[in-house]
Amino acid sequence: MKALSSSVAGIERSPIRYILDRAAAYPDAIHLEIGQPDFSVPEHVIEAAARVMRHEYTGYTANAGMRDLREAITVKLARENDMHVAPENVIVTVGAMQAVYSTMLVLLNPGDEILLPDPGYGNFNMGARLCHARPVFYPTLAERGFEPDLDALESLVSKRAKVLFINSPSNPTGAVFPREIMQACLDFCRRHDLYLVSDETYDRLVFEGEHVSPARWDDEGRVISIFTTSKTYAMTGWRVGYAVANQDIISTMAKIQEPTVSCVNTVAQHGAIAALLGPQDCVEAMRAEYQRRRDIAVQVALEQELSVSYPHGAFYMLVDISAQPLDSIAFCCGLLESEQVAAAPGSSFGERSDRYVRVSLCANEAALREGLPRLARYLHKAQREPARSAVASAQAAR
Fold first, then answer.
1. What domains appear along the chain, each with residue ranges and CATH number?
2. What is the pLDDT of residue 10?
3. 3-class DSSP state for residue 346?
């Protein structure tokens, strides 16, 4: 038989999903690997969806999404992001990831370069490669609070560059970029005539500092902003995200919506309206709990002599494992085998990230208090007995 498409043949599966699948064999495993909120969907969202299923229209909607939802999104953007747009500037997507991929499809030609963060969410790289674009990775360094290295960006940009991609609050670092960094990124894009794609998935989950949307300063239509209901309202499985951009970009994204997903689930769209326009105290309650877990995780990590990032937003923390010889996948396999703890390999987030594993603060307090000491025990053992740990981890990875 003929070979599969070259677009997909060379793309590797996410190491996070690899560990998640392996962890299924350990029924008592402590799950620190996945960014899945452990909160229930707010009750008023569930009630709205149930009412719609029984009494309202549930058929196809416009490719760009229900107008009522797009109007609700404009209300949210004005309220939370100082962005004042029309419904025609909004498209509703199947989660933030489809918004990311559709944006790449609309902006990138084969061979174009897209500047991606490292550490950064691995699906950004996968999406770019599916578009036959060339990812160019710019560093966000721990010693600089995981903010973009603007000098490095200047050295990496070429004539083939077309897009700068930023993510704040960041997955996996938890960095929240200050106003001056956001302005500098937009200025960089203006100088080099690049589009700026701003992934703002965690915009409501900030512990220190403020979330700033760079689109508030955009008077040229070069910023595409991406949001989702998934993390803010614990609606991950509902799959409602959205992108905000100039009308030409949005109308083109709506055009390619038809042959890909047609439209987002109608019931979920009604639920998203209730989420955006309904009571927001649930958001603050979840944000406060994630911050409390962050404080606990950092405290336990320091007590266990772990070197960790200090996340100011989102719900992830990086643990430095560079003092031992294993790569992050082998380390996570050994950790699962020896301690029944599942963590996300740093290689999921870029080449510079292999020195880390990511811990999700979606895990409850008990899991963090038990899981982090187990991780520390395995790490310290791997430091003391590198050869034995390497053999054991290689066997665990088979």
1. 6-40+282-397 (3.90.1150.10), 43-277 (3.40.640.10)
2. 76
3. helix
**How would you label 46-84 residue by residue, b for 16+ Cβ within 10 Å and e otherwise?**
eebbeebeeeeeeeebebbbbeebbebbbebbeebbebe
HSE toward the beta carbon, residue 378, CA cutoff 13 A: 29
Nearest to 121 by CA among 161, 156, 162, 170: 170
Distance CA 285, CA 54 (A): 30
What is the maximum span of the chain, computed from C-alpha positions, in angstroms?
A: 65
Q: How many CB atoms lie within 10 A of CB 209?
A: 15
| Cα 113 to Cα 135: distance, rounded to the nearest angstrom | 6
3-state helix, strand, coil in the chain (%, to 5): 50, 15, 35
Q: State the sign of the Cα–Cα–Cα–Cα dihedral 233, 237, 238, 242.
A: positive
Q: pTM of the full predicted structure?
A: 0.94
Check residue 3 and give its pLDDT: 87
For tokens 């066997």, the residue is 395
Count other C-beta atoms under 10 Å from residue 43's C-beta: 12
Run means of pLDDT, 10 residues per run, the chain, 398 residues: 84 89 96 94 98 95 98 98 98 98 98 97 94 96 93 96 98 97 98 98 98 97 98 98 98 96 97 98 98 98 96 98 96 97 96 94 97 98 75 55
Provide the phi-psi class of 247: left if phi over 0, else alpha when psi is between -120 and 50, else beta. alpha
Region of 17 (left: φ > 0; alpha: ψ -120 to 50; beta: rest) is alpha
Cα(126)–Cα(387) distance, integer angstroms? 34
Residue 162, CB-side half-sphere exposure with 13 Å CA sphere: 16
- As given in the structure block, the two tokens for residue 351 are 């080449």
Query: ∠ CA 310-313-319 to the nearest 5 degrees?
Result: 35
User: Which amino acid type is present at position 43?
Assistant: E
How far is it, in rounded angstroms, from Cα 267 to Cα 46? Answer: 10
Any alpha helices (H) in the chain, and if so which ranges? 6-9, 15-23, 43-55, 67-81, 95-107, 122-130, 150-156, 179-192, 247-257, 266-277, 281-303, 328-339, 365-384, 386-397
**β-bridge partners, 320:** 356
Asked if residues 96 and 226 have their Cβ atoms less than 8 Å apart, the reply is: yes
